[in-house]
C-alpha cells in the first residue's frame, strides 16, 4: 500500500511526499511532531503538519540563512539562533572560524531531541562545545540580552502557532537591542507566492528599525511556493557592498560568493512587494 504525507499549503494547494517509513510521531508541549522517512527527500521533520526540513534539500535553506549574514559581518564572534532546534543552522555557523559562541534559543526541547536522534546529518553541530542550548522562549531571551550578539538568525516555523510572536515589530525591536552596534538580523520571511501580504508588512517593520534592509531569495523545493525569501536588517554592513572576492572558501553545496551577490537580485513582483513597504 502507498502511504503519502500531505502538507496543506492553502485551501487550493497541497504538497505530497511518498512515505518510506514513519519513524516517530508525538504531541509535544507546543506542537504535533513527526519524523518521516520519505522516498525522495530522505528523513524529514514535520511540525503541526508542516515540513520543516528534509535531509536532501535542507542545505539550501541553512546555507542561505547563515552564510549571507555571517559573510556580511566583518568579524562575527557571537551568534544567536531563535528557533532552529533541528541544528541545521548551527552546522553551517560552525564553518565560520571567527565564531566563538552560538546560542540556540528553542522553545521545544523535543525538536532538539528528535533531531539528534533521527536527523544526525543535520543536527550533529548541536553537541559542539561552542553551542549553548537554551530551551525556552526566544522572545524573552532576546529581551533579556542587550548588546550581546553580532548576528541574530530567526530560524522560525511559519507565522502560526508558537512562532507568531517572531513576526512582530516588538520582537524585531528587541533584536535590535540584543545586537551589538554593527549587528545583523536575518529572518526567514516565507514565500512571496503564499505570504506576499505578510512579507510586505514585515518589510515595513524592518525598515522602521534597521538602517539597511535587504531581502534575498533562494529556491527550496519542499517549501510552499518553492521560491523563498529571507530579510536582512543591518546596523552597519551592506551585504551587497562587500568584496565577495574576500570571502574565504568553505564547504557548501548552494552558497558561493557569486550567489552572495546574485541572491539580492529580485524578480519584479518580489521587488514590488518589498518596495511598496
Ligand atoms: N513552511 C516551512 C517553513 C519552515 C522554515 N523554518 C525551517 C526550520 C529549519 N531549520
Summarize the structure.
By secondary structure, the chain is an alpha/beta fold. 30% of the residues lie in helices and 32% in strands.
Q: How many helices in DSSP terms? A: 9
Number of E strands: 12
What's the CATH superfamily of the largest domain, by name?
Answer: Vaccinia Virus protein VP39
Instruction: Extract low-pLDDT stretches.
Output: none
| Strand-residue proportion | 25-35%
The biggest beta sheet, please? 7 strands, mixed
Q: Classify the secondary structure makeup into a structural class.
A: alpha/beta
User: How many domains is the backbone divided into?
Assistant: 2
Average of pLDDT:
97
Q: What is the CATH T-level topology of the largest domain?
A: Rossmann fold
Q: Calculate the terminal CA-CA distance, rounded to whole Å.
A: 49 Å
**Assembly form of the protein:** single chain
Which architecture name of the largest domain does CATH use?
A: 3-Layer(aba) Sandwich
Q: What is the succession of H and E elements?
A: EEEEEHEHEHHEHEHEHEEHH
Please characterize this protein's 3D structure.
Strands 8-7-6-9-10-12-11 form a seven-stranded mixed β-sheet, with helices on both faces. It has a five-stranded antiparallel β-sheet with strand order 1-2-3-4-5, covered by helices on one side. Strand 11 (212-219) and strand 12 form a beta hairpin. The protein is an alpha/beta fold and 277 residues long. Helices cover 30% and strands 32% of the residues. It contains nine helices and twelve strands. The termini are far apart. It has two domains: 3-54, Spermidine Synthase, Chain: A, domain 2, CATH 2.30.140.10; 58-275, Rossmann fold. Helix 7 (192-209) packs parallel to helix 9 (268-275). Spermidine binds next to strand 5.
Amino acid at each position: 500500500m502507498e502511504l503519502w504525507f500531505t502538507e496543506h499549503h492553502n485551501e487550493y494547494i497541497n504538497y505530497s511526499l511518498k512515505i518510506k517509513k514513519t519513524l516517530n510521531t508525538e504531541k509535544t508541549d507546543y506542537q504535533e511532531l513527526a519524523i518521516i522517512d520519505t522516498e525522495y527527500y530522505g528523513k524529514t521533520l514535520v511540525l503541526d503538519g508542516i515540513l520543516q526540513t528534509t535531509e536532501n534539500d535542507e542545505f539550501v535553506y541553512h546555507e542561505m540563512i547563515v552564510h549571507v549574514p555571517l559573510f556580511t559581518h566583518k568579524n562575527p564572534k557571537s551568534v544567536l539562533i531563535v528557533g532552529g532546534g533541528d541544528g541545521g543552522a548551527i552546522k553551517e555557523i560552525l564553518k565560520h572560524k571567527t565564531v566563538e559562541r552560538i546560542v540556540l534559543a528553542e522553545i521545544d526541547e523535543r525538536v532538539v531531541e528528535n533531531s539528534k536522534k533521527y536527523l544526525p546529518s543535520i543536527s550533529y553541530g548541536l553537541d559542539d562545545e561552542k553551542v549553548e542550548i537554551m530551551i525556552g522562549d526566544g522572545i524573552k531571551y532576546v529581551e533579556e540580552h542587550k548588546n550581546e550578539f553580532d548576528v541574530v538568525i530567526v530560524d522560525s516555523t511559519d507565522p502560526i502557532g508558537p512562532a507568531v510572536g517572531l513576526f512582530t515589530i516588538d520582537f524585531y525591536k528587541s533584536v535590535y537591542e540584543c545586537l551589538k552596534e554593527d549587528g545583523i538580523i536575518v529572518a526567514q520571511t516565507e514565500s512571496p507566492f503564499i505570504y506576499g501580504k505578510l512579507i510586505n508588512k514585515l518589510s515595513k517593520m524592518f525598515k522602521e528599525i534597521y538602517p539597511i534592509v535587504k531581502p534575498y531569495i533562494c529556491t527550496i523545493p519542499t517549501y510552499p511556493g518553492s521560491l523563498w525569501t529571507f530579510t536582512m536588517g543591518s546596523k552597519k554592513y551592506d551585504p551587497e557592498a562587500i568584496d565577495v572576492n574576500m570571502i574565504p572558501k568553505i564547504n557548501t553545496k548552494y552558497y558561493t560568493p557569486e550567489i552572495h551577490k546574485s541572491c539580492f537580485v529580485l524578480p519584479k513582483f518580489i521587488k514590488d512587494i518589498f518596495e511598496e513597504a
